[in-house]
Amino acid sequence: MAECIVNVADMRKIAKRRLPRMVFDYLDGAALDEVTLRDNAADLEHLRLRQRVLQDVSQSHLETDVLGQRVALPIMISPMGALTLFHPEADLALARAAVRAGTIFIHSAWSGTPLEEVAKVAPHSTWAQIAFWKDKGITRGHVDRAAAAGVNVLVVAGDVGVSSKRERDLHHRFDYRARPPLRDMLDAATKPAWLTRFALGRKITYGNYQIDGRPMRLNEMGPFMHENDNPGSTWADVEELRSRWSGKIVVKGVMTADDTRQAVRSGADAVIVSNHGGRQFDAQPSTIASLPEVVAAADGHLEVFMDSGIRRGSDVVKCLALGANACLIGRPAIYGLAARGPVGVDQVFELLREELVVALGCVGLTDINDLDRSVIFGGSEIKG
Ligand SMILES: Cc1cc2nc3c(=O)[nH]c(=O)nc-3n(C[C@H](O)[C@H](O)[C@H](O)COP(=O)(O)O)c2cc1C
Question: pLDDT (tens digit, 9 = 90+) per residue, 311-325?
Answer without folding.
Answer: 999 999 999 999 999
